[in-house]
What does this fold into?
Amino acid sequence: MSKICLNPACKNPHNPDDNQFCHGCSANLAESTQSYLFENYRVTKLLGEGGFGRTYLAEYLRRYNEPRLIKTLITSEHKQTQQKIKELFTREAEQLYRLDHPQIPKLYEYFEKDNNLYLVQEFIDGINLREELEQDGLFPAQKIQTILEKLLPVLVYIEEQNLLHRDIKPDNIMRRHSDGVLMLIDFGAARVKTGIGPTVFTAIYTPGYAAIEHMRGRPVKASDVYSLGVTCIRLLTGCLPTGTTDLIYDDHENCLCWKEYLQERNIKVSERLVAILDQMVASSLKDRYPDAQAVLKDLLLPISPPVSLPTELEQDLLLPISSPVSLPTGLENGQNSTVPPTFSVPSRTLVKSPKRFGLLAGVVAILSGVVGIGGYLLINQPEKISHNNPDIDHNSQESIDKNDIIPLLESLEAQYQQGNYQDCYQSATDNPNQDNSVLQEWMGKCGLEAAKIKANANSYSAAISIAQTIPDTVPNYQEIKDSINTWSGKILEYATKVYQEGKLEDAIKLTDIIPDNSSAKTKISNLISQWEQEQEEAHRQVSLISKTTGVDYNRLRDLLEAGNWKEADRETTRIMLQAAGREKEGWFRREDIKKFSCEDLRIIDQLWLESSQGKFGFSVQKEIWQRNGRPTHARGKQNESWRKFEIEIGWYKIEEGRVGNLPSDIYNEEQNLGIWGVTLDDFFSRAANCNL
It folds into this structure.
């Protein structure tokens, strides 16, 4: 076991467990294991390290200790290539600094220190997809579909900036805890793409996720598409590459054999998604999607549920004559449609098999003739036909509805079995017969499963959005309502965590997602009030810690608010000596006063002013000093200006009601001398310069 020095500039941070000081930089390891002050940051944890640098978690001291990520690039050990590395780093950092996308961590700043380079980025509190795979198991098809829908637009944005990520893999995709949003991280390998053709780059990639042209140092936009496709396939199959084995890569054929793996293990994936993934990971560039936009276009094409006909033609002849027979667009004229049209099936649809189309068309023609000849009778004698026909059951509307939507029900069953719950739910809700009890059952069943997919991915807001669209007439609505309450509780938990990180506004935004009919909603109002009060107090506490000297003024505030003037007077002297680093000596030199922290003077003055309604404080004393001729002799010297000032301010006798009387501990009555050992002119001139 070893101690790790948290100094980002340390060249050798690993130390034996019994070391008190770092052998790399001499830092105190007892302190650095907790935190390490570095520039405007307090480094709290080493997150990872590699051959060229390390990654740290840090707190930004100038913004309520907001968490940040610091990445170091160690160049001091690479003398020959140091200048080139710096040039590349600066150019890439400038490019990344301009990226502005909600799913890409923000780059706050980059700088050089001691010949090493540093990036400061937004810290993403979440879990990467490799960890999610280990935690939750194989990703279902619907989850893979969602990953593509969420990340392809990010790739499109990157492509528009002429950037290539070059290292897309499960480790570099994070799901943020607070809202379930997928974040694309680690742009350390990203490079600017110039020109139309392939650009030669240093071959930076992760084995098992890079296309051939990428490994050869000539990546293009399609290379990032390949990496994202492979990432999805590995999450779908659970087959991650190791140093020696890759269960879904065929070295002889130089391609992925993932479809065979799915079949062997009976993993259900729609043909459409298989086709898209297959084209994303094609070995040859000419067979692969050229960029992310092309993938997104195919992915977002509307899907129509498959329509299947009954096995017996005679069943088609049982249709009521009054039911219209409609043909899908494009087939009336014998045309073929590339994308199946979306249409409802209120009655039996007579289009499916080419073999049967001629026969069915003949039947339609005959029926049309019958309607043409006997239409008058059919229209003007409906009651006679209905009431005189003993074969018609007037109470069988439900059975007729079920019979009419058989093809749709078959489609819903297929979609459900394939895990396409969102498509299943959409098909059920789009149908005009959705009041049918069977469709109601499917709506509740598929809708809840679609929502659960989102919830399982920690996207509780998306889960609730889906669940709220499900009608309250479905048979399993109570289960849906219970799920909404559970997910709302999860959002409230995340909101509480976000609040505890000091992000009140973000926490309140999260609570806005919770629906009004949720059981968690009743807790929110009181909770937000509590948060606001706590944060107000926390900010008050933070604001009373000097950023310049680190002195804590909260005790002085408490004494003043309690009206304990005498003890507050003594505390003022103590903390002023602490702020100047003169506690041991117990007095000030002139140079100490001339450079005394303005921030500390203002804090002390403001506390005295507020607690005394404007009677006490250095600014009040400064005005009295100015009115009495600005005496410049040291305190205790008996001159006219000093006597006039001393009589008005009343330092010989503490009178709590006398304006300017406090703070008074700066004057030592026994020695007839102030503890300052300096002139009033020095002190009040400093107060004036600090705008007191």
Q: What stands out?
A: The domain at 126-299 is CATH 1.10.510.10 (Transferase(Phosphotransferase); domain 1).
